[in-house]
Amino acid sequence: MLNKYLALTRSAWMLSLEYRAEGLVWMMTNMLSIIMMVVWMSISRNRSVNGFSTGDFVAYYMVGLIVRQFASAWTSWEMSNEIREGSLSPQLLRPIHPIHRHVTANWAEHVMRFVLLGPIVLVVLILTPDAHLFLTPISISAFLFSLLGAWFITFLSDYAIGILAFWTSQATAFTQAVYGLRTVFSGVLAPIQMFPLVIQNALDWLPFRYMLAFSNEILLGQTRDERLLFGLVIQWAWVVFFFILTRILWKLGVRSYGAVGA
Amino acid sequence: MAYQIEVSHLSKHYQVHDKEPGLAGSLRSFFARKYRVVKAVDDVSFTIGQGEMVGFLGPNGAGKTTTLKVLSGLLYPTAGNATVLGFTPHQRETAYLKQFTLVMGQKQQLMWDLPALETFLVNQAIYEIPRAQFDATLKELDDLLDLGPIMKKQVRKLSLGERMKCELAAALLHRPKVLFLDEPTIGLDVTMQVRIRDFIAAFNKRYGATVILTSHYMADVTALCDRIIVIDKGHLFYDGNFRALIERVAPYKIIKLQLERPTTSEVLSQFGKVEFSDGLTAVLHVPRASATESAARLLAQLKVEDVTFEDPPVEDIIREVFAVNAASNPTAQE
């Protein structure tokens, strides 16, 4: 399996390099985070908002850039096309599940973007005087673990949406709908602490927060101890849920695949 | 195992919705979709032994490709059974996927933006082909297909024929025991068609691979397959020896004559059935068994400027099969 992954990663890397300009443009989709950061910085200029100082907002959105970059997926777009046009067929004939090609493509792209984005984030964090991170061995390990969880939830849920194309031939409408919900409730527009308490409580149990804000909070030291443990349990419960969901959907979907064309 | 491919009473029915043309039609179909069932494959049975090369013939939409897709595990059969190499294709077991290949003239597995060699290397890994075997097979494929310079060019910069060569190589690197070739020569010029055809014959001979081939080009099938299966509208019309079929529905040869002086049909009819005659040129059908003898007689007795002997075009033969079967019963088998 390792060899297969290495070979797929190699070709995914080559493709990413082939499309390096496109990769840069995709990074620009992060502009929303930057805009929201500036908005919250100006709101919090004179006094902190719900416990967030201006520096906290900078730290939140800078960490958020990395998390959001890493926990992003676009597989549903590709699957939608592959299923509708029938180009999934050659993939189904190979003795490896098509998901692995998407996973390696996703990672190759992330590595690419991280190389570009990482230094920028680091410089901004160093230059902003009161942008503090809570860096302890536990918080760093928990952050990395939550980052992986965020990736799994994002990738698997997007993959599940992609599988819907087996029935609808077009799944991108769902992608858009989920993207909308995610932008609001994962913590891109505002940290979760800015929401009314009722919504905050609900978000503890829903997957959105665990795709972004949760990881930010860990590295800012806002979520610790029991809250942190509770969060990780819920996050990974969602990972398991989406894992099972995609497996079931895939089985059913392939059954109804029309192998379109020719 | 007696047969490598066994298909019994296989059916594949699709539900499709019809859309009338135009915006009004789109609107109507938005609110009330009309569904109908298409029987792409209907109660088809056949068996194929190891190393056989079988041609699938039939008009567009006959069910040829659908049958291949069921055999490749891309589609679930609606009814009936299919086994290939002892596997049930739609279960898509890894052990099965490693032993066959499906090449579709209109679908590709090569990565569009990278050289074909990259796809070969990925396939080496995912089919777990040992290094030495990979090198040896690639060399052989290179000899047969002349891949040298083209496999290092970006796929999107290759011509259609070059791409097909690489596509075949990518599909055969793991030395599959069973090949499903769906229109492998589509869109290619005659020279390239012949190249691909020779290659398929050579691969079959060298590895003893079983081949099912569909093609619009009768020449592909005539050149490669002793046995043909004729399908139309999902039904199997004929399964058997190609020569035997020709003997049965077209037991004659065609003689085309260019005469030195005008000759009447009455005179010509001593030698065979006159299909066409305008005095100086004529087309005769003569019984296959006595073709040589009639030709000799003809050349001895008439002043002939030019003469050609031909087999009836395969298209005509197939049309004949359909006509005969439509008149009698639709599932006749040899």
Structural class of chain A: mainly alpha
Number of domains of chain A: 1
- Measured distance between first and last alpha carbons of chain A: 32 Å
**Rough shape of chain A?**
globular
Indicate the low-confidence ranges of chain A by residue numbers: none
Radius of gyration of chain B: 24 Å
**Annotated CATH architecture of the largest domain in chain B:** 3-Layer(aba) Sandwich
- In the CATH hierarchy, the third-tier topology of the largest domain in chain B is known as Rossmann fold
Largest β sheet strand count, sense and barrel closure of chain A: none
The percent of residues in helical segments of chain A reads over 70%
Biggest protein-protein contact in the assembly: A-B, 28 and 35 residues
List keywords for this structure.
heterodimer, A: 262 residues, mainly alpha, 13 helices, globular, B: 334 residues, alpha/beta, Rossmann fold, Alpha-Beta Plaits, 6-stranded mixed beta sheet, 4-stranded antiparallel beta sheet, 12 helices, 13 strands, disordered C terminus
In short:
The complex is a heterodimer of chains A (262) and B (334). Chain A has 262 residues and is mostly helical. Chain A has helices at 2-18, 20-28, 31-43, 54-70, 75-85, 88-92, 99-127, 137-163, 165-168, 172-185, 197-205, 213-220, 225-255.
Q: What would you say this structure looks like, in words?
A:
The complex is a heterodimer of chains A (262) and B (334). Chain A has 13 helices and no strands. Chain A is an all-alpha fold and 262 residues long. The longest helix of chain A has 31 residues, at 225-255. Chain A has one domain (2-255). With 334 residues, chain B is of the alpha/beta class. Chain B folds into 2 domains: 5-246, Rossmann fold (3-Layer(aba) Sandwich), CATH 3.40.50; 252-310, Alpha-Beta Plaits (2-Layer Sandwich). Helices cover 37% and strands 28% of the residues of chain B. Chain B has helices at 22-31, 64-71, 94-97, 116-126, 131-145, 160-172, 190-207, 218-224, 242-249, 265-268, 291-301, 314-327; strands spanning 5-18, 34-48, 53-57, 79-84, 100-104, 178-182, 210-214, 227-232, 235-241, 252-259, 273-277, 281-287, 304-310. Chain B has a 6-stranded mixed β-sheet with strand order 5-6-7-3-8-9, sandwiched between helices. A 4-stranded antiparallel β-sheet of chain B has the order 11-12-10-13, with helices on one face. In chain B, helix 7 links the parallel strand 6 and strand 7 (210-214). In chain B, helix 4 (116-126) runs parallel beside helix 6 (160-172) and helix 5 (131-145) runs antiparallel to helix 6. Chain B is globular. The two termini of chain B are 23 Å apart. Mean pLDDT of chain B is 87; it is low at 330-334.
